[in-house]
């Protein structure tokens, strides 16, 4: 029996492409997977080929594209739908049209892509994309719910301007988000305490409104929280990222907030069914008593006095039994003692301390230097990338949670 055209089956990822306008992003996805050292094997529907020629995918994936034509022409006992399914480790459908999702949910196999899906036994990821009304139609909602229930990872669609010119939720997850999902599926073996648990992470600096255009903010970039969310995601956790600084490329849901009050409300709602809360956001301690209407005029004014009041303490407002809570303490100087006192005062399970005056690390930077204070000890992580800090933080969270 002949083999499908792949040279590295253990690195092979099936990439199903369907007839959605977001298919242009699938070209970038396939390139990205190649950069990740993987071998994408593109399976195209007939509608997909009306948008992007197989030649493009063949060139970027460095492998022939499989389609209905190639399946019917295959000879010598090679059944493409079975062999391709056997040889790949992960299958991702991006873009996934309403039509193909419906066929997958119904178990139809009237083209090569859906036949491969039925024959495939590994992890499957779908990145839906469509007009918001198609996305919200009960048929689509039900199809996605059914696929998720059967273990398919359904990546959230993003809000924004859609190709049809309308606004709404229906944009395909970004290629970076899909690559992260593929990485997690390939790791596959995540069996630590975070697997299946819900982790709520906050990130970014809050903005407290002064008037219609001005706010009091801070320089937090949201990078540390994002790195923690990505790391927990890779270990199999269900993530909700509550942030003031949404960046593209998350394969998990993001709740966008602005002020400390918004953040407290979003966190309160998200932690109701969560196991872990990581408060990496830089939340304002004080906010204007009230936001003024319109724009405060500069004319005829030499000074401006704002009355600031204490904001809600988000950490204190979210204490509940069984919720493992992680706080962050950004202190000016090597104030480890203060951080230890803060851990006790806040009653958190873990506190991550960093010195904002240390050179080249902390707020806004890609690097950090932290000390993780837990109930059983302290771990110092010397200056390194925020991703490496996140690995250490999530290691400690898993140690604190113990066996599932
Ligand atoms: C210009 C254009 C854009 C389209 N975009 C989408 C889309 O984003 N999502 C979707 O579900 N269907 C979209 N469709 C409809 C699908 O192409 C159509 O349902 C097709 O039958 C899908 O076939 P497939 O799922 O086998 O690829 C679009 C159609 C056209 C003509």
Please, could you describe this protein's structure?
The structure is a single chain. The protein is α/β, with parallel strands linked by helices and 404 residues long. It has two domains: 9-187, Flavin prenyltransferase-like (Rossmann fold), CATH 3.40.50; 198-401, CoaB-like (Rossmann fold). 34% of the residues lie in helices and 23% in strands. The protein has 14 helices and 19 strands. It has helices at residues 23-35, 48-51, 54-61, 68-73, 80-87, 98-106, 112-119, 132-136, 138-149, 175-187, 223-234, 260-270, 336-346, 386-401, and strands at 12-17, 39-44, 90-96, 124-128, 153-154, 158-161, 167-171, 198-203, 208-209, 215-216, 238-243, 254-256, 276-279, 286-288, 308-310, 324-331, 350-355, 367-374, 378-385. It has an eight-stranded mixed β-sheet, sandwiched between helices. Strands 2-1-3-4-5 form a five-stranded parallel β-sheet, sandwiched between helices. It has a two-stranded antiparallel ribbon with strand order 6-7. A hairpin with a 5-residue loop joins β6 (158-161) and β7 (167-171). α11 crosses α14 (386-401). The longest helix is centred in the C-terminal third of the chain and has 16 residues, at 386-401. It is globular and about 75 Å long. The mean pLDDT is 91.
